[in-house]
Amino acid sequence: MFCIFCQHHDTEVIETRVSEDGTTIRRRRSCPKCDKRFTTYERLEELPIIVIKRDGTRERFDREKLRSGLFKSCEKTIVTAEKIDKIINEVERELKEKDATEIESKTIGNLAAKRLKKIDKVAYIRFSSVFRRFVDLDDFEEELKKFNPD
Q: What are the residue ranges of zinc fingers typed unnamed (predicted)?
């Protein structure tokens, strides 16, 4: 690794730390020529997750888009921001474990909804009504019957 200050080609690693989630390595480096220190980060280069939308268009998976939808669904509920972030992390991890790099948007919605259902039923219904495009009251009633199948 070259020095970012003097461009010397031989720097020394002073300290190495792995991030909590294990996806990044932080290295403190020192240049023997100019004695300055700097930090580098190593991350695994991953293939992007491509989302296939309902209309057939494709776009990169966007954590912020999923977060926004979950936050809207969870307004005025007991679901915390930490729980929402945990859902997003679990969904993204599951997507990366799949063999395919192109995933239908409904699959992502189902993964998030499944986790949300365990936390808060109202937030689950709100989220499901948007991503499944409930059209009328019958759609809501069908989904509610899944909670109490009498």
A: 3-34
Number of compact structural domains in the chain? 2
Beta bridge partners of 27: 16, 40
Task: Tell me if 96 sits within 8 A of 49, measured CB to CB.
Answer: yes
Name the residue with tokens 């930090």. 39
Has residue 99 been placed in a domain? yes
pTM above 0.85, yes or no: no
Q: Encoding tokens for residue 22?
A: 């294990």
Determine the distance from the C-alpha atom of residue 125 to the mean position of all C-alpha atoms in its chain, rounded to a whole number.
Answer: 21
> Does one domain contain both 18 and 55?
no
Q: Is there a single domain that holds both residue 94 and residue 21?
A: no
Indicate the pairing of strand 37-43 with strand 24-30. Answer: antiparallel
How many other β-carbons are positioned within 10 Å of the β-carbon of residue 24?
A: 13
pLDDT, one tens digit for every residue, the chain (150 residues)? 999 999 999 999 999 999 887 878 999 999 999 999 999 999 876 778 999 998 999 999 999 999 999 999 999 998 999 999 999 999 998 998 888 889 999 899 989 999 998 999 888 888 887 766 665 666 656 766 676 655
